[in-house]
Design goal:
Largest sheet: none
Order of helices and strands: HHHHHHHHHHHHHHHHH
Radius of gyration: 24 Å
Number of strands: 0
Strand content: under 5%
Distance between the termini: 98 Å
Structural class: mainly alpha
Amino acid sequence: MRTSSDVKLAAVADAPPAPPEPTRRWRPHPLDLVAVVLAVVGAACALSGLLPRAETTATLHRILPLLLFLGTVIVLAELTAVAGVFDVLASRLAIAARGRWAALFLLCGGLATVTTLVLNLDTTAVLLTPVLLALARNLRVPAAPLAVTTVWLANTASLLLPVSNLTNLLAADRVGLAPLAYAERMALPQLAAVAVTVALLWYAWWRRERSVGGRFVAPARHVPADPVLHRTALAGCLLFVAGIVAGVEIGLASTVALALVLLGFVVRSPATLRPGLVPVRLLLFVTGLFLVVQTLGRHGLDDLVGNLLGTDGGALGALRAGGTGALLSNAVNNLPAYLAGESVLPAGDHTRLLALLIGTNVGPLAAPWASLATLLWFERCRAAGVRVPVTRFVVTSTVLAVTGTLAAVGALLLVS
């Protein structure tokens, strides 16, 4: 006699097999397309003669050390995140805040500032953003203030060291300043930019989102999955920072630090190491952008930027340079904006060159495309399902771009 369960089993056995899961087609990200198009157009400019061979060679020779640094430091930051260094820092910051909203604000802002200074702004935008968004979920607090903290400070806290931003590397090379001498010149402008950012962050985002009483429930301490890898990655970051302070060439410092971390992953987690860690998109983007901007400079862009910069010296010239950098950054992107401005300013005009740098670092916040860090930040927010109010973001970011640039350029004039 067949039971009901036997009937059910027979029915299942006789049923036609389930259709296979549809295979998802790989689709390139829009930023991948932008990078490839820039690389192809840049190569076409060089091969067609629109950019003379001598200038092509000089441009590639200039950016090769930058590409080495960018490639190694991004991989270093990715592996550092996998090892749990950022998660440990974020959870300890939340615990250190002891449930106080204002203390959490200062600690998150401090972490974003330090990450930008010592690694670079793209690390803050790409890796620290998801950490703070996860922290917001764990604490059950609004995510928008923590998200805006990363993108604002990724841009405005990127003035102090050459490693903090690709444009800084170009500027330090242009004015002939070693890392420590560069940091001494930019310390006061950096302090001014961060002070304005912190004030606006609090009043425009954090203060209005705090709960009644300004308290939250502190999370448990985060324990890394592999303590050995965690310590190795932390040691690699500290070695990198020590190399920069000691004046070691930045590409060499990042390569040595990465070699140490890679060794740890080869031993402890070899499956983590994959070709996708290499930031091919960023390397293609930078290479193509340099070649295209150099070509456009020869065919009219230099004249346009020269008219915007003018010939004024002193405070007016510095303010005009900073304003031009911020304006062009939001119109196009901060990297071509700096390259175009640098090409028409005399190498000996340090004050206007550094004011231009301030405009292209602190200013690119009003438009989503104004800096690569801001584009990457938007991508991370979308991936995490976090919606930042667009109108509020654009309005407050525009206020920061203007006031932050003015404050930093004013501070530069005090030390010039």
